[in-house]
Design goal:
The chain has 296 residues and is an alpha/beta fold. The protein contains ten helices and nine strands. Helices cover 45% and strands 18% of the residues.
Length: 296
């Protein structure tokens, strides 16, 4: 099924790219109808996640959030495929970074910066950052099992100069850069679900016990990097704004779990303000604390 699925993806991408972005949203509207009303893609997962995250809301309120989520999810899918062939001019306008001076202040000092962000808004479009900066930019990723899909996403993320960096190779690469005096910014999706044997810390996130991945925090502390959080907002279809918020400028001085706890809290606040833009179809809470043996 690997090659047929990839062929379908490339064919869909080719069709979408025949039209201007504003017209491709007609396809997104069709996807919403199919995904939400017909196929009912992961409707039970979304329903359960919202019920557990917002028990204080009525069922009607949660259903409205779910419907808005599926509309945004359809937009994001189409936007991501369109990004594969988007021009540099369009690419620079799709996400506007409002306070690059904060990022550049540390890069100008020769520091290494780790930027944490979640599966919120269209995270793939944040790979347009190299259009705004001349410094080395890494897009840290988790290797996919499907080689064809991985190749597609690696090409997409490197579209404007971002360097895809496999998660397991991140520490080694940043150590090498540090030794050579090369400043860089590494973008890290930190709201992934860890494997059961990797769980060493839990937080209360969206009203639930939630295990977190600690690899990025460990790298930040070992290398004493700057840590930023990327806050984003959707201004309208096809347009996003993002700004960097300082978590710490000396990760090595932070206590254990301090960075991940703070970033999780910042993401949670962003989700609470506009919940429809987070990835609710993700099985974020498949591990239960009582069934996992936690080690330190």
């Amino acid at each position: 099924m690997e090659k047929p699925g990839y062929f379908l993806l490339r064919t869909t991408t080719w069709i979408i790219q025949l039209f201007p972005l504003r017209l491709t949203y007609l396809f997104a509207d069709l996807l919403f109808i199919l995904g939400y009303h017909v196929i009912r893609y992961r409707r039970s997962v979304v329903k359960e996640n919202l019920a557990n995250s917002f028990p204080e809301k009525t069922q009607k309120e949660r259903e409205l959030i779910a419907k808005k989520f599926y509309k945004h999810f359809s937009d994001s899918f189409v936007e991501t495929l369109y990004f594969d062939r988007i021009s540099a001019r369009e690419g620079k306008n799709c996400v506007k970074f409002l306070n690059l001076e904060l990022l550049n202040e540390y890069l100008d000092q020769g520091r290494q910066v780790l930027t944490f962000f979640g599966h919120y808004n269209n995270w793939e479009w944040f790979c347009n950052l190299p259009l705004y900066t001349t410094y080395r930019t890494y897009a840290v990723y988790k290797k996919l099992k499907n080689n064809n899909f991985e190749r597609f996403y690696l090409n997409l993320r490197s579209r404007f100069g971002a360097i895809p960096l496999e998660r397991a190779a991140t520490f080694r690469q940043l150590v090498n850069d540090h030794q050579k005096g090369i400043p860089s910014m590494s973008a890290i999706l930190f709201d992934q679900t860890p494997r059961a044997y990797e769980i060493h810390h839990w937080v209360t996130f969206l009203n639930q016990d939630t295990p977190v991945v600690l690899g990025a925090e460990k790298i930040a502390q070992k290398l004493d990097t700057v840590v930023l959080f990327l806050f984003s907002r959707k201004t309208k279809r096809g347009h996003y704004e993002a700004d960097f918020q300082l978590v710490t400028d000396h990760a090595g001085a932070c206590s254990k779990f301090e960075i991940i706890d703070k970033c999780t809290s910042m993401l949670e606040q962003q989700i609470i303000e506009n919940p429809e833009f987070w990835l609710w179809s993700h099985k974020r809470w498949k591990h239960k604390r009582e069934s996992v043996v936690e080690t330190v």
